Write a sequence for this structure.
């Protein structure tokens, strides 16, 4: 890159490049050189803005977690609308987009990255998925207050089941494909069936 050329948003440029590498080539291919080449910037640019590559990756994941906070607010606001299953299916589909699935694999793959993320986030669970679990637990707590699921429903356990099942459905597919809608609905209905049925007793 020519000297003196101003990068308007280097951070976003590098993050977008990292996401493209992840989606195209997978976690093993994500290196600082691959990111700067994809972003079409000089090799030293990344290290000018981040202490090291793991610091860059941590910020990349944290950026996605920040976006998750917005989705969480929307999901909580949806409590009491449509059906519980419909809200969950929509949220799972939005959550497990290709980038989030790829970032989750990256967090699994890199021990140092996982350790860094845990310093500033939940002490337990896989970063990104732990925040997603909290999002669903918060939503289900709202539905419990409205009487749309059983008053004694264990929302943390339900959220964990939804995240685990959802991740397996979305991550275990060929790139560019999504779970069959009927399959996703069946899984969600199975997870929440008891909590829905017992509210009527």
């Amino acid at each position: 890159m020519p000297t003196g050329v101003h990068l308007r948003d280097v951070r976003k440029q590098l993050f977008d490049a990292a996401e493209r590498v992840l989606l195209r080539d997978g976690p093993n291919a994500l290196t600082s050189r691959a990111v700067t080449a994809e972003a079409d910037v000089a090799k030293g640019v990344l290290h000018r803005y981040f202490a090291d590559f793991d610091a860059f990756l941590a910020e990349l994941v944290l950026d996605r977690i920040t976006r998750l906070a917005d989705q969480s607010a929307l999901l909580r606001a949806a409590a009491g609308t449509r059906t519980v299953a419909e809200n969950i299916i929509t949220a799972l589909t939005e959550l497990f987009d290709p980038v989030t699935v790829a970032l989750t694999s990256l967090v699994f793959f890199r021990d140092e990255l996982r350790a860094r993320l845990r310093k500033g986030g939940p002490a337990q669970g896989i970063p990104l998925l732990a925040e997603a679990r909290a999002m669903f637990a918060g939503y289900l707590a709202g539905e419990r207050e409205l009487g749309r699921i059983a008053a004694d429903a264990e929302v943390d356990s339900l959220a964990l089941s939804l995240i685990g099942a959802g991740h397996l459905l979305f991550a275990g597919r060929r790139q560019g494909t999504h779970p069959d809608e009927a399959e996703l609905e069946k899984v969600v209905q199975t997870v929440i069936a008891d909590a829905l049925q017992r509210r009527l007793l």
